[in-house]
Amino acid sequence: MHTNNKRSSIDTKAAQARRGQSMTEYALILALILLSAFLTLQLMGISVADVYARLAALLGGDACIAYDTGFDALDGWSPVTDNLWRGDMTTADGQLTGDPLSAITLDGFDGEDYVIDVGRVRLDPVRPVYQGYGVMFRSNRDDRGRMNGYMFEIEKVNPNDRGTMYFSKWVNGNQIRRPIASRPLAAGFDWQRPPHLKIAVAGDRFTAYFDGSPVLEGQDATYTDGTVGVAANWGSALTLDSLRVNDSTCEP
Amino acid sequence: MVENAPRLNDYAEGMPERPGRARDPQQMRRAAIIGLMLLAIGLTLANVTQSRRWIMARNTGALTGSVVDEDGAPVAGAEVAIPGTRLETVSDAAGRFELTGIPPGTQTVLVAYHYVGDEYTAAITPGQRTDLGTVRVITALRPDGRAAWR
What we know:
The complex is a heterodimer of chains A (252) and B (150).
Chain A: H1 2-43, H2 48-59, E1 65-69, E2 77-79, E3 89-92, E4 95-98, E5 103-106, E6 114-118, E7 121-125, E8 131-141, E9 147-156, E10 164-171, E11 174-176, E12 181-184, E13 197-202, E14 205-210, E15 213-219, E16 227-232, E17 236-240, E18 243-247
Antiparallel strand pairs in A: 1-18, 2-5, 3-4, 4-17, 5-16, 6-13, 6-18, 7-17, 8-9, 8-16, 9-10, 10-11, 10-12, 13-14, 14-15
Chain B: H1 25-50, H2 52-59, E1 61-68, E2 79-81, E3 88-90, E4 96-102, E5 105-113, E6 116-124, E7 129-136
Parallel strand pairs in B: 1-7
Antiparallel strand pairs in B: 1-4, 2-3, 2-5, 5-6
C-alpha cells in the first residue's frame, strides 16, 4: 500500500513535469508551424498582407472581394522596374503616390475574370504633355521583369489634345502599337480628378466604366490571367486612395 | 589447266608455307589506333545526333528579315521575339535579324523599338528559313522614351 502511494506520488510528479514540458513543446511546434507557413507563402510569392485581406473580406461576409486595399503600406505590391517605368511609387497618409513613369503591380494575386474598382484618383500635372494614368490587368512579369498583359489608359498628348482612352496589349514590356480599342475622351473631361473607373474583365472581353457607365469595350484572347497594377504617365503624378478587385460574378 | 594443279608430291614434306607477310607489330598498332579513332568518331556522331540541340535544329526553323524606319533606313537594336518563349534577338547595324530554333507552325512574332511594337505571324517550317520581309518601326521618340506611336 505504502509502496503504491509512493509510486502514485512519483507518477503524479512525473506527469506534472511532462505537462510543463508539453506547453513549451506546443509553443515551439506552433512557432515552427507559423514560421513554415510564412516561409511557404513567401516562397510561393504570396503576400501575408494579401492573405490577411482576403481572409478579412471573407470573414466580413463579403466573399465577392478578391482583394481590397488602402495604401497604408506597399506590402504585397512591387514596382515595375524595366527601363521604361523608372519612377517611384510610395505611400503617404494612406494613399498611393506615383511619380511620372512609375508603375506597380500586386504580387501574389492571379485572377482570370474580375472587376477592378479603382478608388479616387488625382492627377497632378508635372509636364504639359503626355499626362494620364493606366490600370494594368491580367498582367504578368517575365523573368526579366518585363510586363506582359493589358492596360487601360487615359492619355493627353498635349494641352490641345482632348485626350484618349484605350485598351492596349503589352508584350515583353512593349506596348503593341495598335490599341485593342480606343476612343476620344468626352469634352470637359476632368483631368485632375478623373471619373470613378471600373474595369470588368470577363473571358476575352474588357469593359471600362466611368461613374458606372460603360465607356469602352475591347476584346483580346492573348492573356487569360494575371494580376493588377497602376501606372502614371510621363506628364502626371498619380495619387490613389484604394483599389479593390471583385469577383466578376458578383458584379452586375 | 590440270597441268598447273598442285600434285600430291608437293605436300610430301607437309603444307607449304603460305605466301604472305609476317605481321608487323607497328602496323598492328597503327590499325588499332585507326580502329579506335573510327569508333570514337562513330560514337561522337551518334551522341550528337541524339542530342537535344541537334534534334531541335532538325525540328525547328529560322526567321529572317530586316527592320527599317519611317524613311526606309535600316534600324539597329530593334527587338525581335517570339512571345511566350525565350527566343529573342535584336537587329544588326544593317537592320537584319535572324532568329533560330523556332518551333514549327504559325508563330506570332513581335518586332519592337523603344517599348512600342507590332505583332506579325510567320509560318515556320522545320529546317528552313522563313523570311518575314522588311518590317517598319517608329524611331521618332516621345520625351518619355517610348516610340512616338501617337
